[in-house]
Structures are given as structure tokens and as C-alpha cells.
Design goal:
about 280 residues, mainly alpha, ABC transmembrane type-1 domain-containing protein, transport, MetI-like_sf
Length: about 280
């Protein structure tokens, strides 16, 4: 085949490619981003206008430029990165501890009627208390060291993970269980091939809720009993009477939470798509 024929064939192949759906999807995402930025842009403009009109003194409402300058200074001194890394490590350890216990007890309660009768009433009682209500009691037994933060945040993860796991196991479609009985699956085969694939997307959703609850609880814990972390920066700014540090920490907390939620949303969507293909 000559080079001219090859070039013509490549051009014909390129013409057959329909770029319409890709361009439409790209335009959709651009529109979503633009719409999502409208409210923050209005808020930033209103903030700058209030500073220019001096509606509040600078000791209460710092300018956006000052907050940005403070952010750059804390990045330059590594105080922002170090404290954020400490907070993320606390969340990671709490998710590991609280998520593992929640998964274990969730499967146990969902698979065993005896466990449901003995464990679920106690869990239901514990779940009624907010995390902040446990902190004074945990301080008595654990002090104010790192174990207090991990234990308190783990409680925030434990509840949604257990509930999601327990309900996911109970909501496995009956016809799938009937198929496993027809094929005479063992208890382990039924769990591995039927219950776990069916329940996994909802369990991932529970983990997503648990991680976001951990991030929210982290701020409370670090505000009350911590000398480092992103939440402590708010306390530090209040002690120094520097609202620019407080504003900066609040904005960082919001941005990190937003990014975490979207990443976990993509993971959850991926598992849901996998479930549809698996069944």
C-alpha cells in the first residue's frame, strides 16, 4: 500500500470518529465549573467591597489580599503543610480503626440474628451521642494525647460505616440468595460471590460518609484539645488576634473537604458501575 493510500485511509478513519459526544461532555463540565464558581466569586467580591467600605475593622474582617499573603507566608514556613499533614494522618488512622471495627460489626450484625439481638441495641444507644459529647469522657481515660483524637474521630467513622454495612447485607436481593442455594454454595462462597459484591457499593458509600464525618469531627477535636493540626491554626489565630490566620484555616478546611468528597464520589460511582456490570 502506498503512502498516499495510507494517508487517505487515515483521513477517512479520522472523519468517521464522531467527536460530538466528547465535545458535548467537555462543554457540560466547563459549564458546571463556571456555575460552581459564581457563588464563590460573588462572595469574594462582597468580602472585598465590605473591606473597602470599612464596614468592620480589619482586626475582625481582614482583606482577601491579607489572607492570601498570610497563606503564602505559612506555606513558605511549612507551618500550613505540616499542620495539614498531621490532620490528614489523624483522619487516616481514624478511618482505619473506626472503619475496620464498623465493617466487622456491620457484617456480623447483618449475617447473624444472634449478633443483631445482642449487639445492635447497644450500638443504637451509642450512635445517639455526638462525637463532641464523648470528648470529656475520653479525656478522663485517655488524657489529651494523640490517642484521644484518634478515638474520638474513630467514633465518627464507626457509626456510618456500621450502619451502611449492616443495611447493605440485609438488602441483598433475595433472588441472588436463591441462586446461591440452587448452586449449593457454602457459607463462604455465598458471602464472597453474592453478599459482598451486592453490598460493596453501599458499603463504599458508608465509608465516604464516615470519612467526611471524620474530617468534620477532626476540626472539633483539634479546636478543643490539640496543639497542632489544621484545626489548631484557628485557635492559634484567635490567641494571636490574627483573623487572617482564622480565615485562611477555615478556607483550607473547606477546600480539603470539598476535594475529599469529590474524590470519594468518583470512587463510589466507580463501584456502582462495577456492580451493574457484575450482575
Amino acid at each position: 500500500m502506498s503512502s498516499i493510500e495510507t494517508q487517505l485511509e487515515n483521513e477517512q478513519t479520522w472523519q468517521r470518529i464522531n467527536l460530538g459526544p466528547y465535545l458535548k461532555q467537555f462543554g457540560f463540565w466547563i459549564a458546571r465549573i463556571v456555575l460552581a464558581l459564581i457563588v464563590p466569586a460573588i462572595g469574594l467580591a462582597a468580602w472585598q467591597y465590605a473591606v473597602q467600605k470599612q464596614w468592620l475593622p480589619e482586626q475582625i474582617l481582614p482583606s482577601p489580599a491579607l489572607v492570601w499573603q498570610t497563606t503564602l507566608e505559612l506555606i513558605d514556613t511549612h507551618e500550613l503543610q505540616d499542620n495539614l499533614w498531621i490532620s490528614l494522618k489523624r483522619v487516616a488512622w481514624s478511618v482505619l480503626v473506626g472503619g475496620s471495627i464498623g465493617l466487622l460489626l456491620g457484617f456480623l450484625i447483618g449475617l447473624s440474628r444472634i449478633a443483631h439481638r445482642f449487639i445492635y441495641p447497644t450500638f443504637n444507644l451509642i450512635a445517639q451521642f455526638p462525637v463532641i459529647g464523648w470528648i470529656p469522657l475520653l479525656m478522663i481515660f485517655l488524657g489529651i494525647d494523640e490517642s484521644l483524637k484518634i478515638a474520638a474521630i474513630s467514633l465518627a467513622v464507626f457509626v456510618p460505616v456500621l450502619v451502611a454495612t449492616y443495611r447493605s447485607v440485609l438488602n441483598v436481593p433475595p433472588h441472588l440468595l436463591e441462586v446461591s442455594q440452587v448452586y449449593r454454595f457454602s457459607a463462604w462462597q455465598r458471602f464472597r460471590r453474592v453478599i459482598l459484591p451486592s453490598a460493596l457499593p453501599n458499603i463504599v458509600s458508608g465509608l465516604r460518609q464516615g470519612i467526611m464525618q471524620a474530617w468534620l469531627s477532626l476540626v472539633f477535636v483539634e479546636l478543643l484539645a490539640s496543639s497542632e493540626g489544621i484545626g489548631y491554626l484557628i485557635v492559634w489565630g484567635r490567641q494571636l488576634i490574627q483573623p487572617d490566620i482564622i480565615f485562611m484555616a477555615v478556607i483550607v478546611i473547606g477546600i480539603v473537604g470539598f476535594v475529599l468528597d469529590h474524590i470519594l464520589g468518583w470512587v463510589e460511582h466507580g463501584f456502582s458501575h462495577w456492580q451493574r456490570r457484575a450482575f
